[in-house]
Design a protein that fits this description.
With about 575 residues, this protein is α+β, with helices and mostly antiparallel strands. Helices cover about 40% and strands about 25% of the residues. It has 4 domains: about 100 residues, Beta-Lactamase, CATH 3.30.450; about 120 residues, PAS domain (Beta-Lactamase, 2-Layer Sandwich); about 160 residues, GAF domain (Beta-Lactamase, 2-Layer Sandwich); about 150 residues, Alpha-Beta Plaits (2-Layer Sandwich). The chain is rod-shaped, with a radius of gyration of 43 Å.
Amino acid sequence: MSATRTGGIGDEPIVMELDRELRHVRASDAALAMVGLPADALVGRTSGEAGLPPEVVEPLERELRAVVRTGRERRLELRMPTAGGVRWLRLRVRPGGGDDGGPAVTVVATDITERKLAELRLSGGNAAFRALVEDSPDPIALLDRELRVAFVNDALEHAAGRPAGSLLGCSLREAGTPDDVAARLEEAARRVLDTGERAGLELHLPTPQGLRWYSGRLLPVSGEGAGNVILICTDITERVNREAEQAALRRVATVVAREADLEEIARVVAQEAATLLDATSSAVYRFESEDTATCIAAHPPVGAGVAVGLTAASATGRTARSGLAARVDDYLEDVGDSSVREVVEGGLRSGISAPLWTRGRLWGALTAGSAEPGAFGTAEERRLAAFAELAAIAVANAETREELDRLVATDPLTGLANRRAFTRRLAGEVERARRYGHPLSLAILDLDDFKLINDTLGHQTGDAVLAAVGALLQGTSRAGEMVARMGGEEFAWILPEVDVAGGVVAVQRACAQIADLVVDGGARVTCSAGVCDLETAPDADELMRQADRALYRAKRAGRDRVEAAG
């Protein structure tokens, strides 16, 4: 419902006729257009019954009743909400005869919106005030005693994405301010009017440029404009985003510094990146090749540990191939690609990826995706890169810890587990076997007359023999078993799910292969061993003792043989 020319729409005036009960008898086309109703929805009904807004019905019917009662013409100005924005009308309410069936009251309206807006602008303050705020880069509004908008500057029009004409005379909610923000502003403005003191608050407001943060200051007006409140909004979005970014990076850095495991760090990185970038999802991937990656962690927490295919059409795939940051603004542009089709079917339209470089090699990528096309720009690329840098440090630290753990648990000569790692593993295997009632065997092996090899052929040859025996035993063992070098020429072999008889057979086979080794100088290497299982020994310490005793029985019995405990 709208009227764009003073006096009416087109050349037709805005006229309504009503009877003594204030029911509409007739309305011109311009009047019907103004109220946004067809004739049959208005004629025969009062303004309230026809559904006109209460803020229109109350003052209008008050004047109509006065005219019916006194028979005298009355005038008023009325603020009329319409689908095209707020319109201002000047009404002449004239008495009619009403005795011969004619109208009791005739209302003739003139659209004075443009003049009223000009007046409201002028009432926004004196010329000095307008000159001060009109060119301000900060959005500024003047609120009257009823907390309606009496003035806005160009910056506020731009921030709101609406012309002044659709804002002036409106309450904060009518001007498009979200209810929660409007409530906070109204509370603060009333406090300013009551106390005469300034007030401040931070506001999160939708704009044509997206959600923005503002620092709002409300100031009381004194002198000519006393009773009004000035609202000044300073855009602090960049500051808020920068503080949020720094806080998120600090949280990630804290997790990295405390040397959490890689999965936990990746989970925190993905969560913080998704939140800061307002992304639908985020993930940390380890590249297995240019075409395959493993998800280490994701937010929301889905897909961890899953292998995914990569193509050059996805942001992650581009990073895997180039080692550089990548961005896809709209996956629908290449939906023919199978991996991109999976991305789109998963609810994502745009994606961004930052490489994770560690120790001079491309390890993986930190990625983010959005259900909206074009969701990421250069600012998001910069933020993701900052998270990726911390994630790369975490990866390097985790790999260093893994390498140190491996070195601490590994015999440097043979590459087998050392005594420390063996002892820890044996305790765990005994506990599992006892819990589930499974068999478990332990073999202790010792090379026969190894000192003779060192004395006659030298320690270098002796080391080569130890390394060869270690490789042979490692190759002979099955998945889930452990072979360790206990020191000198002694080895240990943990055989889960194997009883003593099976253990003896496996160790005899290995000893036979050791006897076939070719040693420099033509010397022959043989091995003696003792085997024990949990049927004979109740715990790890007793397993070691019983297997050791069986080994020495094999030595005393002539060497190059395997003995079972018990």
